Amino acid sequence: MEIRLETITPIFQTTPASTVSDEDLRSRLEQEAADIDPSHYWSTHHQLLPVIAFQTQSNPSPTTLPSPSTPLYNPYEGQICGRQLSEPVSAFLTRLPPLTTPQTPSCPWIYIANPYSDARPSDEDWAGFAQTGEALLEAHKTAHSPSAGYPKKGPLARAGQKLETRLLAAAQEKRCTSGKWMLFPSPADVDRCWGLVAEGTANRELGSAAKVAPDDDSGRARLICVYTKDFSDRADVKRVAERLKAMGLLRKKGLGLGDEDRGIYYKADAFTHLGITSGNVWGLKASLYSSKELLAGGGGVGMNGPRSRK
Question: Helix 126-144 and helix 155-173: axis angle, to 10°?
Fold first, then answer.
């Protein structure tokens, strides 16, 4: 076969000489270099997940890297706002201190999971629960015309108790059983409180996971949620409350009340998902447990216990 050399496209072609002089090119490159601000890159460099992975692999921590035979789970793996399995808790707290970490779309909360927990969000049917729950709320509103506020006696109170029981049963049926104890430390105290919660969660002393609100520039108290797997497991819910108390996280500060503990409240995620907050139009209590009642031997709504909740 005859090959005509003029039909072959050269791999390298000679480009026309640039019309930009060496002096112009040098001036432009010097200006571009002067415009570069490396401070932003280095200020966020330590938060990049490849950097975290490299640092923890180079300096592994025996307390954060269990034996290979231990099955671990982290729903926040790969998320910049969550603690990574290979990341020591101390490094995580340094990387994302809640006092100064800004709240952004990519970091609406700061998360940490108990890697040994068997709680799996993938098992939950939140869409199915929302459909059932919203139908129950609408039916109750139509039948009883409740108003904001919590009736403590009478037919409306009894109807509210039945509604709460049905909502909790629907949540259990759809495996949407997670719930959380809620702490509200001041901004000045949030790093200390969150450090205790984060260490306790990672070390299996608390519940399945925890999260804290980053800085939203409001100056208000920060919300810390300490999660448990099942709101109906009163023994486990109580155990976590006892541990929070032992950590000193229920202690009142700056109120001249000595060693008296403040009450905190436990709320089912099912109620959060349905938008049931204090003063709701259904006249429902938003929380299931009070720490003061539970630690004194009481219970919560739907759990065969007292009902003096927020």
Answer: 170
Listing DSSP states for 26-48 in one string gives HHHHHHHHHH--HHHHHHHHTT-
Strands 265-268 and 289-290: antiparallel
Question: CA angle at residue 241 from 237 to 246, to 5 degrees?
Answer: 145
Number of Cβ atoms within 10 Å of the Cβ of 22 = 8
For residues 45 and 111, give the distance between their C-alpha atoms in angstroms, rounded to a whole number: 20
Contact 202, 226 (CB under 8 A): no
Kindly give the confidence (pLDDT) of every residue in the chain, 310 residues in length, as a single tens digit, with 9 standing for 90 and above. Answer: 444 444 444 444 444 545 557 787 777 777 776 676 665 555 555 555 555 554 544 444 444 444 445 588 999 999 999 999 999 999 999 999 999 999 999 999 999 999 999 888 778 999 999 999 999 999 988 887 766 555 566 666 788 889 999 999 999 999 999 999 999 999 999 999 999 999 999 999 999 999 999 999 999 999 999 999 999 999 999 999 999 999 999 987 643 444 567 889 999 999 999 999 988 888 888 999 999 999 987 655 445 444 444 4
Q: In what order do the strands lie in the sheet with 265-268?
A: 110-113, 209-212, 224-228, 179-183, 265-268, 289-290
Q: What are 12's two structure tokens? A: 């390298």
Return all residues near 10 (Cβ < 8 A) that are at least 6 apart.
none
